[in-house]
Write a structure and sequence with these properties.
Order of helices and strands: EHEEHEE
Strand order of the largest sheet: 4-1-3-2-5
Largest sheet: 5 strands, mixed
CATH architecture: 2-Layer Sandwich
Distance between the termini: 38 Å
CATH class: Alpha Beta
Helix content: 25-40%
Structural class: alpha+beta
CATH topology: Alpha-Beta Plaits
């Protein structure tokens, strides 16, 4: 059975900087074989680009929504994009 690959552009707002949010996101993505990247934006916002199979992607989105200990996700926007398979791993960008 062919796996469906999804690409998600995610914006997370809240207490998401200085709490290990990017490292947490990278860890979860890597464990679920999700590729892409995460980076800090404004003082209270993180941007994520992620690609992966449908079921792991749903798990990834839920984990990001919950965040690591000490984070507080106030708002999360998830937009669908066309998969490009341009990444081999999941990285933290500066």
């Amino acid at each position: 059975m062919k796996q469906i690959i999804l690409r998600k552009h995610i914006w997370v707002t809240g207490r998401v900087q200085g709490v290990g949010f990017r490292a947490f996101t990278q860890y979860v993505a890597s464990s679920l074989e999700i590729t892409g990247w995460v980076r800090n934006m404004n003082y209270d916002q993180v941007e994520i680009m992620a690609e992966g199979e449908e079921q792991p992607m749903l798990q990834f989105i839920q984990a990001v929504k919950n965040g690591p200990t000490n984070s507080v996700v106030q708002k999360m926007t998830v937009d669908d994009e066309t998969p490009s398979r341009e990444w081999l791993t999941f990285n933290i960008r500066s």
